[in-house]
Structure formats: structure tokens, C-alpha cells
Amino acid sequence: MPYADRDEHLAYHRGYYRRPDVHEKSKAAARAAHHAMTPAQKAVRDEERRQRQRTPKSIASKRDSRYKKKYGITLVEYDALLASQGGHCRFCHLETETNGARLTVDHDHATKVVRGILCRKHNAALGAFGDTADGVMRAVLYLQGDLR
User: Fold this and answer.
1) Is 95 part of a structural domain of the chain?
2) Strands 114-118 and 104-107, how do they pair?
3) Which residues touch 108 (CB under 8 Å, ≥6 apart)?
4) Is residue 1's pLDDT more than 60?
5) Per-residue pLDDT tens for 100-116?
């Protein structure tokens, strides 16, 4: 049924879908369709869902969101920082992890300031030393045999 304007059309549909009987019917139909699927159909559906989630665009979008939330930088800023370091870990000059994973963002936990891009091994090592120069210096002294 034609409507004079879009707002009137949208108002009708909002009211229709707010009716409890319509909502319950659609939920019941969805449940019935879900339970009517064979295990093979469910496997195909699940694989299609996983494939949609693995697109390069969706992976980059998820990584961008994670970097913004955790470190306050975008994926573009991560790439720029990595390029400014020559594309490798600041310590060992490793370009990617041995398993193909990206290098990790190193940041100060107290100030949340990003310090650079490191491989997982060196980022974890800094964390193990408490992210302090004193912790690293004590490790150096230990390795030299001077720590008492």
C-alpha cells in the first residue's frame, strides 16, 4: 500500500514489528528453520559465516578497532610507526614473527604511550622486567656476573 511520504511508511513498519504477535511469529519461524537444518547444512552455514569473518577487510577492521581501544592508535598509525622503524622489531630487526604473525605494539602501561613495535619475545621480556630500566639493568648485571 503506497504511502504519501517515507516517514509514514516507516512509522507503519515500526508499529507492525513492535506488535508482540508478529515478533513471536518471526522468532518461532527462525527457531523452526534453525532446528530443521541437517548437520551438513549447519556445517555449510557455519563455514560460510567463518569465511565472511575472514575477509581481509573484516580482519583489518577488527585489528583497527583493537588498536584504537587498547593503544589509542589506528592501523594506519601502526603501519606508519612500523615503517619508521624500517619494518622490523626495534631490538632484533625481525620483520615478522616466525609463525607469520604481525609484530606487537609496545606501550607504557602507566601512561598508555606507545613506545614502538616489537616482536612478541622482546615485548614479553620488557614486561617480565617490569617495563623499567632498573629491571633491565639488573638483568644486565646478572648476565655479567656482577649482581650480588
Assistant:
1) yes
2) antiparallel
3) 115, 131
4) no
5) 678 889 998 888 889 99
Say yes or no: 67 and 137 in one domain: yes
- Count of alpha carbons within 13 angstroms of residue 108, beta-carbon side: 7
Neighbours of 53 (CB within 10 A): 10
pTM, entire model: 0.59
Q: Work out the number of other CB atoms within 10 angstroms of the CB of residue 1.
A: 4
List, for residues 72-109, the tens digit of each pLDDT value: 999 899 989 989 988 888 888 877 766 667 888 999 88
User: And the C-alpha cell for 74?
Assistant: 589506528
What stretches of 19-114 show up as alpha helix (H) in DSSP? 20-36, 39-53, 56-71, 75-84
Regarding whether 83 and 131 lie in a shared domain, the answer is: yes
32 has pLDDT over 80: no
